[in-house]
Amino acid sequence: MINSKRDTMISLAFFLLAAALGVFLRLLYVFDISVDYRYFVHTHSHIALLGWVYIGLTTLVYKLYLEKCNVTKKYRNIFWFTQLTLLGMLFSFPFQGYALFSITFSTLFLFASYWFTWFFIKNVSEKFKNTKSYKCIKASLWYMIISSIGPWALGAIMSTLGADSIWYRLAIYFYLHFQYNGWMILALFGVLIFILEDQEVSISNDSFNSFFWAINLGIILSFFLSVLWTKPASIYYILGGVGSLLQCIAFLIFIKLLVKSRMVLSTVFSGFQKKLLRTVGILLLIKFLLQIASAFPYVANLATTIIDFTIAYLHWTFLGVVSISLFVFLDYFKLIKIPKKGYYIYLFGFALTELLIFYKGAVIWLDFIFFEQYFIALSIASVVILIGISYLFIANLRRGVKHDFKNRDILS
């Protein structure tokens, strides 16, 4: 029997670790600590993306599509192999950055993700294969595989052109783009469509096909936004702009679909879950609008030359859109319980860090002067996020312990 609640707690533990590493990175600007900053950035990003988001999403996908398919042992092998690769990265990146052991474990993780994708497509029940949600999830997993071209290319680039080559940065951007726009966001759309289908909401083929083609073309074309820092030919700005516009259109089509289903949704989701979904909707719309803006040369130049704007955008996507969506769905499927107090602490910390990071970018852009205690304020804001996630983790840990004790009482 697969314990999906325990697996979700493991993903949440990785989120807690990533948040703690984020605080540590902020404190490096406040205190003189003799470590390699880049090594811990690599650790932080890998544990956040692959520990929290990947494990959280794949646990959801397993529960929705494979839980009743009698493939427990095979999935368990994949799951624990993946944990081994994550622990390997956790204990190698801080000490050596990209080197033998960290690269080995990162490569093994890629194989684990391929293994999960193959396992999912091979074992999913026939009753799901014609559903619209499955179509989204399957496409998202293919984007995850496509994204891995970036890490594979890094080795060849470093050994031939070097880390200073523009291709090195392009490979990283390729990976990140297809991870968050392709794999993560499309998978989250798929989970919401699964809920609608599970509630027997009728989704017209025309509406879904319009959404599906717009979102996929948008994902592919908007990658060109990630090359604009090289100041390429005008056609790349146009392609990137069209891609971001298509993503925005797909989002509006999806919202129209949700509005039509609002009577069902109002009974399916709790009031708190609906608040979280509305927050995600606002964050996602702003993300798409920022992408459209970044297709213009002046904004593209700002976004790529001032690293704080890039960091603020990535955090907006991962800590905002993706993580809050995961909160909603993990809560909805009763894998964890999101306590309101813990969530609002997290949300406040997220908003505060975004404000401060964007502020720094604006100060550099406008050539203003930082307020003296900026890095202390940013460290405190990061601690607030850590407190929020800690609250979520401890609350669910206690809930799990109480549940175990109840089960023991029943059995005895």
From TrEMBL:
<protein>
    <recommendedName>
        <fullName>Cytochrome oxidase subunit I profile domain-containing protein</fullName>
    </recommendedName>
</protein>
<feature type="transmembrane region" description="Helical">
    <location>
        <begin position="208"/>
        <end position="229"/>
    </location>
</feature>
<keyword id="KW-1133">Transmembrane helix</keyword>
<feature type="transmembrane region" description="Helical">
    <location>
        <begin position="141"/>
        <end position="161"/>
    </location>
</feature>
<feature type="transmembrane region" description="Helical">
    <location>
        <begin position="312"/>
        <end position="333"/>
    </location>
</feature>
<feature type="transmembrane region" description="Helical">
    <location>
        <begin position="173"/>
        <end position="196"/>
    </location>
</feature>
<feature type="transmembrane region" description="Helical">
    <location>
        <begin position="12"/>
        <end position="31"/>
    </location>
</feature>
<feature type="transmembrane region" description="Helical">
    <location>
        <begin position="345"/>
        <end position="368"/>
    </location>
</feature>
<feature type="transmembrane region" description="Helical">
    <location>
        <begin position="101"/>
        <end position="121"/>
    </location>
</feature>
<feature type="transmembrane region" description="Helical">
    <location>
        <begin position="43"/>
        <end position="66"/>
    </location>
</feature>
<keyword id="KW-0812">Transmembrane</keyword>
<feature type="transmembrane region" description="Helical">
    <location>
        <begin position="280"/>
        <end position="300"/>
    </location>
</feature>
<feature type="transmembrane region" description="Helical">
    <location>
        <begin position="235"/>
        <end position="259"/>
    </location>
</feature>
<keyword id="KW-0472">Membrane</keyword>
<feature type="transmembrane region" description="Helical">
    <location>
        <begin position="78"/>
        <end position="95"/>
    </location>
</feature>
<feature type="transmembrane region" description="Helical">
    <location>
        <begin position="374"/>
        <end position="394"/>
    </location>
</feature>
